[in-house]
Structure formats: C-alpha cells, structure tokens
Amino acid sequence: MRTCAVCNTRTPDETERCPKCGADLAVDSAAARSLTKLRANPRVRDIRLMVRADACPACQAAAGTYLKPVAPALPIAGCSCPNGCEAFYEPALNEIYP
Asked: Which residues contact 37 (CB under 8 A, 6 or more apart)?
C-alpha cells in the first residue's frame, strides 16, 4: 500500500495518482519523500531496504544495502505481497553522534 504524503490516503501499490488529492505518488508518497530526505542527508552513508521475513520473492531479492543514488523506489517492481509492498528504508549513518 502507498500512502499519499499530501492527504494521507492509502492506495494500492499500482496507483500512480492519489484519488483524493491528485498528487503524483512517485514523488508525493510517504516512501518517495522518505527516500528523497535520506539521499539529501549528509549523515546518511547508504540506504538499507528492509523487508519482512515472509515477504514475496521480489521484495526478498531487492532487500539489502544500496548507495544513496541507486536505492530502489518503493513499491518494489513485481511485488506480490498479499497486503501490498511493505518494504521500507533504513539509513546507514556515517556517524551516530555529532
């Protein structure tokens, strides 16, 4: 499921535009905005793509650590998880404390 970052409407993974506010979910979904923020943060070295242990094969294959410019967008292409793609991002930091 995708969540619109503009109006918080949840939609199926394949939805490209929010049916409530018309936002482009490739840019204005919660996951897309999260990825943009992680890429812009200088303390973030890499981006980890985390998935559940019982995730579909496509999500399992995509799980791992990526350089910031090549971290995949969510939802994962080919995801067949019953409740929609539940993958999420986790930052790998350069340093933990200032």
From this structure: none
